[in-house]
Structures are given as structure tokens and as C-alpha cells.
């Protein structure tokens, strides 16, 4: 049997934030140009998914995010045209609330702006979505999906791993 490299999907978190029928999105620079995404990013070593989504939302929107519900686990695979890179994402999505923009706080590098769009407006510009998960998460939220935050468990070993063996 031929040895192959172990499959390692990218684990990301996303914040789905709705207010008055509009969803908070970010317009960000990608290798394919300016694209729309939910405030989202990669899970970093030592942080829980909830810590990660709070951090990413703050970095990308300059707003404090309070997760209220777990939306679900989403997977998508696609080829990035600019690099011909085959990538699989595992996205843990959360819904919640944000406060006002924090004065003087800049947006993360690569984020051009934030904007509020309705579900219909977002669906109408699907060609500009960073991934197919952007709209799916918004549609699930709009359909009423709400799971308890306790559905995502993070063991204390994330911060202080023990030595096994």
C-alpha cells in the first residue's frame, strides 16, 4: 500500500450576525480578488472555537461579538482558481450579537470594509462569496437553526496539554 499524506482540512470559525433583517459581512481581499464572507477565520493553537470566533469577529469588524448559539458544523471543498489549490474547510459557525464599532480600532489586514446585507441581497451576489458556506450559514440562521453553545466542548488541555505515554 502506498503511503499518502494525511488529510488535514482547514478548521475555521464564523460569526453569523443579524440585526433588523440584515447580516453583517466583510469584504476581504483574496487571491481571487475582493470577496464577501461572514466574519471568519482560522482556529489558532490553544484557543477554543468560541474564543476564536469572538477574536475573529473583533479583528474583522471592530465590534465585540457575543455568541448566543451554535449554528453547526459545515464542510466545503473547492479549488482556488488563482493558485489551483484544492482546499477543504471545516467551519464551526456561531450566531450572536455585536455592539457598535469600537472607535479607533482598525479592521484586520485584508478586510476592506464591513457591510450589512439582507439574505436576498447576499444570495444575489453569490459569485462574490468567499465560499459556498457564506450563504448556507445565513440561510440556516434565517430558517431558525439554533443549537446550544454547550454543543461545542473544549477540554482544558487546549491551554495546557498533558504528556501522554
Keywords summarizing the entry:
single chain; 165 residues; alpha+beta; Nucleoside Triphosphate Pyrophosphohydrolase; 7-stranded mixed sheet
Output the helix-strand order: EEEEHEEEHH
How is the CATH topology named? Answer: Nucleoside Triphosphate Pyrophosphohydrolase
Helix/sheet category:
alpha+beta
Strand content: 35-45%
Task: Walk me through this protein's architecture.
It comes from Pelomonas lactea. With 165 residues, the chain is of the alpha+beta class. The chain has one domain (10-148): Nucleoside Triphosphate Pyrophosphohydrolase (Alpha-Beta Complex), CATH 3.90.79. 18% of the residues lie in helices and 39% in strands. It is built from three helices and seven strands. Strands 1, 2, 3, 4, 5, 6 and 7 form a seven-stranded mixed beta sheet that branches. A hairpin with a 4-residue loop joins strand 5 (65-80) and strand 6. The longest helix is centred in the middle third of the chain and has 13 residues, at 49-61. The chain starts with 9 loop residues before the first strand and ends in a 23-residue tail after the last helix. The model has no long low-confidence stretch (mean pLDDT 94).
Amino acid at each position: 500500500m502506498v503511503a499518502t499524506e494525511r488529510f488535514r482540512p482547514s478548521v475555521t470559525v464564523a460569526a453569523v450576525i443579524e440585526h433588523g433583517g440584515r447580516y453583517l459581512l466583510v469584504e476581504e481581499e483574496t487571491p481571487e480578488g475582493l470577496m464577501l464572507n461572514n466574519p471568519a477565520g482560522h482556529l489558532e493553537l490553544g484557543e477554543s472555537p468560541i474564543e476564536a470566533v469572538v477574536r475573529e469577529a473583533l479583528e474583522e469588524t471592530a465590534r465585540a461579538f457575543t455568541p448566543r448559539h451554535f449554528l453547526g458544523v459545515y464542510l466545503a471543498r473547492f479549488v482556488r482558481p488563482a493558485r489551483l489549490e484544492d482546499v477543504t474547510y471545516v467551519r464551526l459557525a456561531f450566531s450572536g450579537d455585536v455592539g457598535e464599532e469600537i472607535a479607533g480600532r482598525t479592521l484586520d489586514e485584508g478586510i476592506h470594509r464591513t457591510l450589512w446585507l439582507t439574505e436576498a441581497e447576499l444570495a444575489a451576489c453569490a459569485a462574490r462569496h468567499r465560499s459556498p458556506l457564506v450563504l448556507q450559514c445565513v440561510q440556516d440562521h434565517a430558517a431558525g437553526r439554533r443549537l446550544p453553545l454547550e454543543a461545542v466542548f473544549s477540554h482544558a488541555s487546549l491551554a495546557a496539554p498533558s504528556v501522554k505515554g
